[in-house]
Amino acid sequence: MAKTPRTWSGARSPSGLKRVRQATRRREVLAPRRSAAKTYVAKALTAAATADSEITTTALIEALSALDRAAKVGAIHPNAAARRKSRLTVKVNAALGGSSVSTGGRVTKQTGKARAALSKTARAEAAAAREATTTTETAPSKPARSTTKASATKTTAAKSTAKATSTKSTARKTTKS
After folding, report:
1. Which of 58, 62, 68, 137 lies 20 to 30 angstroms, CA to CA, from 32?
2. Cα dist from 30 to 25, 35, 37, 66, whole Å
3. Residue 62 domain-assigned?
C-alpha cells in the first residue's frame, strides 16, 4: 500500500502523500512573496532612517502594497499584514517627525498629525502628478488628432484617384485587345 520506504516518518496514505506534494508546491510559490514583503519593509525602515521624506514615502507605499499582495494570495494572514502595515506606518511617521516609537512590546498610539501630514503629502503629490500629465496630454493631442483626420482624408482621396486611373487603364487595355 505504501509507496515509500519504511524509513519515511511522514505521510503513508495516498491522500497524505498528495497533501505533502501540494504543500511543497504551495511553499515554493508563497515563500518568495513573504520574503519580498519583508524586504520592502526593511527598505522602508532604512529609508525612514535617512529622513528624506520623498524616498521614505515611496518606500512606505511599496512596502504597504507588497504586504497587501502577500495577504491577498495567502502568503501571510490578512490580520498579520494589517498589523505589520500599522507598525511600519507608526515607525515611519515617528522618523519623519512624529512622536517617538517605544521599543517595548506594545506600540503607543500616536498623534494624528504626522499620519495626516504623510497622507496629505502623498495625496498632494499624486494630484500634482495627475494634473501635470493631463495638462501635457491635452495640449499636444488636439492638433495630432486633427492632422490625423486630415491625412486620413488625403489618403482616402488619393486611393479613390488611384482606383479611377487604374480602372481607366484597365478599360483601355481591354479595348486594345
Report:
1. 58
2. 9, 9, 11, 13
3. yes
